[in-house]
Amino acid sequence: MSAAESSESAGDSSESTTDPSEPTDDPSILVVDNYDSFTYNLVEYLSAHAEVTVVTNTASLETIRDADPDGIVCSPGPGHPENDRDVGVSRAVLTELSPSIPTLGVCLGLEAAVYEYGGSVGRAPEPVHGKASPVHHDGEGVFAGLEQAFPAGRYHSLVATTVPSCFAVTATTDHDGESLVMGVRHRSYPLECVQFHPESVLTGVGHALVENFVRSV
Predict the structure, then answer these.
(1) Is 80 among the catalytic positions?
(2) Domain covering 14-19+26-216 in this structure, CATH number
């Protein structure tokens, strides 16, 4: 998780990154911003393939429902998923909307999903902020067509330590012989998450991963 940028955004404010006057066949993606400095890098990647709207994690669940997005992204952010102030509406999104709306969780988004569905999140063996690590994956979902052991930009001090049975572990990286969770996919819901940052320049396949998600919505 990276340092958050300060924000004065109102609770239910939203921002569209596309011109609503221009018709588009692109899917609509709503990004829940957990106040991370990488959020708008992620928005830029998404905007190449989708009509993107951003709301802060202080928005209401009703605001997100009313937006009626084709897909949702829960952004990275600082803090711990057990703290409501750190994840805000992301909690309700993951449990109430993700069962039916395709959702991608990134970094804190993965940690929040694991935590909300009954898993545990703890400290990583060492905090990493700006390190590229090789990621091994199952070649499905957001990883479809991506090379094995691609370099992925990591910015986090927490990891999923216990993954609930409703999730399959889809990606890992090695740390001194210990396998760290880098990706999970819900076994029944269209919910997929990655621990690393696809929008980081350190992630060689970031654009392709984001495009895979958008194509799934």
Answers:
(1) no
(2) 3.40.50.880
